[in-house]
Amino acid sequence: MSMLRINAEYSSDLSQELEELFKALANVNRIVLLYSLSSGEIENISVNEISQIMKLSQPAASQHLKILKSAKILDAKKQGNHIYYNFNQKSLIKHKKKIDFLFTCVLAKCQELENRE
Amino acid sequence: MSMLRINAEYSSDLSQELEELFKALANVNRIVLLYSLSSGEIENISVNEISQIMKLSQPAASQHLKILKSAKILDAKKQGNHIYYNFNQKSLIKHKKKIDFLFTCVLAKCQELENRE
DNA sequence: TTTGTATATAAGTATATACTTATATACTTA
DNA sequence: TAAGTATATAAGTATATACTTATATACAAA
Hints:
Arc Repressor Mutant, subunit A, 5 helices, DNA-binding
């Protein structure tokens, strides 16, 4: 069985997972939000605070948060009247591994082609 | 100057670059193509061959290739009547670093929050 | 209870994306 | 030069995305 055949088998599921992940990340507002959350001092951050950081309306922010939560980039916990968003660490580690795998495959091929010359 | 302030300065440009990169990657056909190119035996691959691999029409494949080339994921070289696509190694290494930086920031924050408990 | 606050969701709209078919461009070869 | 091949681009269309405004839901506090 050739590499291409093997690849065709695993790549379908993994590629679809990566598509979902990349789609969730493919928005500058959401990327800036992730950086802001990374550097922010506030541990538990509410939707209203996030909408202020993002300079977006509450519904717009809420919709972005839904996308990030669906993609398991963020996690939400309800506390009384507020919903606090945080990183989904466990899932983010898995996401990172998927991306690393893609780039490892691609860059390994680059290296192989370079060595052939 | 707080981290948030510093962040606000660098994140704008970098975030926009990441958005473009993630958008280019946010399509399962393109992701599968990257895996196929990674594992394929053919070094120089033409648009027609790619459209067959992708199971898409020639114009559709051409449009995907344009997106991947614009995002500096692939590179094209013309040879006679054919245009051969290959990975843009130099740029891919830079792309990987940008993604790594994002995840490093995010996962460092995760770790920090975990240690606080 | 009633009122206020926090958040989500629904519906509408403008723009982006991913295809299609048709055609243009560039090169090759008879 | 004419005809064929490889690729890109243009135009059209269906669907997705990212907002908007209006409204629903869930909880808190008076």
